[in-house]
Amino acid sequence: MDVMPLLMLVAVAAAVAGAARRTPVPAPLLLVAAGLAASYVPGVPDYTLDPGVVLPLLLPPLLHTAALDSSYLDLRANVRPVALLSVGYVLFATLAVGYAAFLVVPGMPLTAALVLGAVVAPPDAVAATAIARRLGLPSRITTILQGESLVNDATAITAYKVALAAAIGTGATWGKGIEEFAVASLGGIGVGLALMVPLHWLRKHLREPLLQNTLSLLIPFAAYAAAEEVHASGVLAVVVVGLWLGHHAWQVDFATRLQEAAVWKMVSFVLESAVFALIGLQLPVVVRGLGDYGAGPAAWYAVAVFLAVVAARFVWVFPATFLPRALSARIRARETDTTWKNPLVVGWAGMRGVVSLAIAFSIPLTTGAGAPFPERNLVLFLTFTTVIGTLVVQGLTLPPLIRLLRLPARDSAAETLAEAQAQNEASLAAERRLDELLADERNALPAPLADRLRVVMERRRNAVWERLGTVSAVTGESADDIYRRLAREMIGAEREVFVRLRDERRIDDEMLRTLLRRLDLEEAAAYREEGAA
Predict the structure, then answer these.
(1) Which strand (E) or helix (H) includes residue 529?
(2) Which long-range contacts (CB under 8 A, 24 or more apart) does 203-207 make?
(3) What is the spatial distance between Cα 126 and Cα 352, in angstroms, rounded to a whole number?
(4) pLDDT for the residue 305
(5) What is the mean pLDDT of the segment spanning 366-375?
(6) Is the dihedral of CA 365, 368, 372, 376 positive or negative?
(7) Do 120 and 97 meet the contact criterion of CB atoms below 8 Å apart?
(8) 372 by DSSP, 3-state: which?
(9) How far apart are CA 11 and CA 38, in angstroms?
(10) Are 275 and 225 in contact (CB under 8 A)?
(11) Strands, E, within 260-415: which ranges?
């Protein structure tokens, strides 16, 4: 097995994603463009998407990281719009886009057109949520986009299986389709519910952080495989488990949380970078498969399907936003900040991604009767052009659209005030607990050490309040910013001394690692506080 192409893909994709952070262009768009450009560079190997790799090996960890970072409480508060998008819209888009393709492409059977509709139905909100966070969209819109991306793949895969069964002649009826959808969705949720409690119990009772993080890496694959084994939705199983573990992450050992956050951030970065680069690299494979189709007709079909995808989302999003409000006074009272701008942004943030391409590549070459699958190559081409079109057109125009609409940004001052109030309440509880502990003679401490505990606690309490206060006229930093910067400088000075002592053979390497780890933990704490600021 030649691993060099895989290593080159990961290395170049990571480099491009890192460079994107220094440009105004979102990383997913730059990665797709780089993939498109590299696809015709001499010597670049063919990177054909294998659905047997993407769906069971790439999709679970990406879904798991998204679920861990999502808020269960926010998703529960927005379950109606999330369900209307992740289930209702995907089914509507399957029918609407499929029928549009049937009308536009001469000779394409309706069953094959519905397969295309199911393939391009699920938006990939990775790029959209990245832009939303970068531009400070209201948290409710970001939550809705995240929630949609967590569930819509399950709906699309099930709709695809039903449409594919009709297209290849293995039989599919409305009743059978509804039954399969119910089994897949309820089964996936059931598997997730069955796994989440024992997995969380195991995470809490494993005392070794390395073992806990090994388990963490295995969880999404295990949940996905277990659900697929019983013909349920692996996507929903992964999401349910991820939401539960993320909601209860505070119960896990602190060392595990520190390592887990770093590990999953790295895994997510590598996988997302490679996935978007892979999208662009599919161009030669897709174009070669067009065969007898001319460039002109194929381009017209691509434009028509792209427009149908964009139009179908708006046709669904606006009524799904305002019709429930018109019918329910309770919804109107709860969602007072909903305007026409909200569905406009959600409607335009319907970019497609690698899941659509992976599903398209899984279309069989022949039907049940042994005949070639009708218009398979064209379906692959139209899926590719739709993914590229939405990523480029909508991805590039979404940031200026958001700025043009002037949506209310997140109130950073209000968030900092809430953080300060929460920290103050927690610090008071910690102070009371410290007094209780010190009153017990078993916890007797010298006065300087007891005072040090109180000083550290007081600093945590004051740190957030200082961010609301005045800043230095010279550096523009708050007192807490200056404190953290000076602390890091002091740690750096200590680190240099430890290394010098090791080089002079006054301490050995094992002691150096112990001392450096202690400093690293202190610096990591300062870094996390700075990131929160």
Answers:
(1) helix 509-532
(2) 203/245, 203/252, 203/256, 204/251, 204/252, 204/253, 207/253
(3) 9
(4) 95
(5) 80
(6) negative
(7) yes
(8) strand
(9) 14
(10) no
(11) none
Sequence letter at residue 352 = R
State the Cα–Cα distance between residues 125 and 269, nearest whole angstrom. Answer: 15
Position of tokens 């999502």? 70
**Residue 532 reports pLDDT greater than 60:** no
Which tokens is 487 given?
Answer: 């602390």
- The three-point CA angle 51-13-266 to 5° equals 85
Q: Based on the number of CB atoms within 10 Å of its own CB, is 201 exposed (0-12), middle (13-18) or buried (19 or more)?
A: exposed
Alpha helix segments (H runs only) across 70-138: 72-77, 79-83, 90-104, 110-119, 125-135
The average pLDDT across 209-216 equals 86
Tell me the C-alpha distance between 390 and 122, whole Å.
12
pLDDT tens-digit series, residues 134-172: 666 777 888 888 889 888 888 998 889 888 888 887 655
Here the tokens at position 142 are 């970001």
pLDDT tens digit sequence for 236-264:
999 999 999 999 888 887 778 878 888 88
**Count of C-beta atoms within a 10 Å radius of residue 274:** 23
